[in-house]
Design brief:
The complex is a heterodimer of chains A (159) and B (280). Chain A is an alpha/beta fold. Chain A has one domain (8-128): Rossmann fold (3-Layer(aba) Sandwich). Chain A is 57% helix and 16% strand. Chain A is built from five helices and five strands, in the order βαβαβαβαβα. In chain A, strands 2-1-3-4-5 form a five-stranded parallel β-sheet, sandwiched between helices. In chain A, helix 2 (40-49) runs parallel beside helix 3 (66-76). Chain B is an alpha+beta fold. The relative contact order of chain B is 0.11. Chain B is elongated and about 110 Å long. The chains are: A alpha/beta (159), B alpha+beta (280). The interface between A and B is medium-sized, with 21 and 28 residues.
Chain lengths: 159, 280
């Protein structure tokens, strides 16, 4: 079963035309749930309140740049894969951000659709694996805790 | 001093003066290129964005048409009506065509803006439309402003003015970029043009940080700048004054309130002074 078809992708860019183009491409080629935002505050709210697999943000935006936005996204949902869309002039900032905000990938504009899709697929796979891992660890912890309780009761019964 | 020595001295002075004029013209050209060069990063970004959209839309368009072709062929073969997906694809294609149009217009606007600043080596005074020069300068300044700075224009009906359009454009661009830099975060720039007596009066007002009283006395001085190293040459206003006052017989001034904003006023005579040869 392909568990990655219904990934949620958030796009943030102050340019409406970029969002329209990206949206059209992703809608045509995938079954992803795509949410687009020109407003950074609305984007951050959405990430905070929903399970998002990938966030893609432009770098140069008024109010807040892409790195600042992705830093906030990291605080809210550390598992979500973060991708930065940069112009050539911003490339240096993007490279510095790789460690600073734990960037999954940066993509230079003008972007190549096929390359972008590959990055989104990989990012979404990574997020879902991390989520799955987190859930398994929680289940293991619970099972372990139950076992310990059972063990204690057993010992008491024999004493 | 003998008459001969005096004549020699006058000859030397004339030669030096001519050399100085030549240097000034070269400096003007170099500064023009540097002014546009400093904007290059934002100009490239401004063009890159619509190009990115057009490229993506082109590919999506081709794929969509391929899909649509398949769906319609199948419907035709099975003698059924086209599935709902075909309408969705058509709708997407129409939307993307509209985006492409806007994207192309954006690129055209930037290229048109650049045309005013390319070429024009050596002064060539031609009858020009000041509003058109302002408009082109605004197109380039917009690359810096983007959504941060709102622009309001009030262009009056202006007669054509004999001027050097590249140089005048450079002055406007310089003032517009300065206005943008003066505004921290979001703000507004208001550009007006009108006829005022025998002059064209252009004003460029910003609601930025304003110029402090100590700096106000120095801003037209060569080399004076409040910007960090590497940003600007400190020559912009000095050269602007040279262009407006010395080369066009006009005037450039400003009023500023520290913390509130600055308005620059440029006045250019509608008809150039009769001593045209002295200007060239």
């Amino acid at each position: 079963m392909d568990t990655y078809t219904e990934a949620t992708v958030v796009l943030v860019d102050d340019e409406e035309m970029v969002l329209t183009s990206l949206n059209a491409y992703l809608t045509l080629e995938t079954d992803y749930n795509v949410e687009s935002f020109t407003d950074v505050d609305e984007a951050i709210s959405f990430v905070g309140e929903n399970e998002v697999d990938v966030v893609i943000s432009d770098y140069l935006m008024p109010k807040m740049n892409g790195i600042q936005l992705l830093a906030k996204a990291k605080e809210l949902k550390p598992e979500t894969s973060r991708i930065l869309l940069t112009g050539h002039a911003d490339k240096q900032s993007a490279i510095e951000a790789i460690n600073q905000v734990g960037l999954f990938q940066y993509i230079e504009k003008p972007w190549d659709n096929a390359a972008l899709l590959l990055v989104i697929r990989n990012g979404s796979e990574r997020t879902q694996l991390l989520r799955s891992l987190r859930n398994k660890i929680l289940q293991l912890d619970e099972a372990h805790s139950n076992l310990k309780t059972a063990q204690s009761e057993l010992i008491r019964a024999f004493l | 001093m003998t008459e001969q020595e005096q004549a020699d001295l006058e000859g030397q002075v004339a030669e030096l003066r001519s050399e100085l004029e030549g240097c000034k013209t070269q400096l003007l050209d170099a500064h023009q290129m540097s002014a546009v060069g400093q904007l290059m990063a934002s100009i490239v970004h401004e063009i890159n964005t619509p190009i990115g959209s057009i490229l993506s839309n082109n590919q999506v368009g081709a794929r969509s048409l391929e899909m649509l072709h398949g769906l319609l062929e199948k419907a035709q073969a099975e003698d059924t009506s086209p599935p709902p997906k075909s309408t969705k694809i058509l709708s997407t294609l129409l939307t993307l065509a509209e985006v492409d149009k806007i994207a192309c217009e954006r690129i055209i606007a930037v290229v048109r803006g650049l045309k005013t600043f390319v070429g024009g080596h050596g002064a060539e005074y031609v009858k020009s439309n000041i509003n058109e020069i302002l408009d082109n300068a605004l197109k380039l300044a917009h690359c810096e402003y983007r959504r941060r700075v709102e622009v309001e224009t009030e262009f009056g009906e202006l007669p054509e003015v004999e001027c050097e359009p590249h140089q005048i454009g450079q002055v406007f661009l310089n003032l517009l970029v300065n206005a943008g830099h003066a505004i921290e975060g979001e703000g507004k720039v208001v550009v007006k043009s009108e006829v005022d007596g025998e002059d064209i009066h252009v004003s460029i007002a910003d609601n930025g940080s304003g110029i402090s009283p100590e700096h106000q006395k120095k801003i037209f001085s060569t080399g004076f700048t409040t910007k960090a190293v590497g940003i600007g040459t400190g020559l912009g206003l000095a050269i602007s004054r040279d262009i407006i006052e010395d080369r066009h017989g006009g005037s450039i001034g400003f009023e500023s309130e520290f913390g509130k904003g600055t308005t620059f006023h440029i006045r250019i005579p509608v008809s150039r002074a009769a001593d045209e040869n002295a200007q060239k």
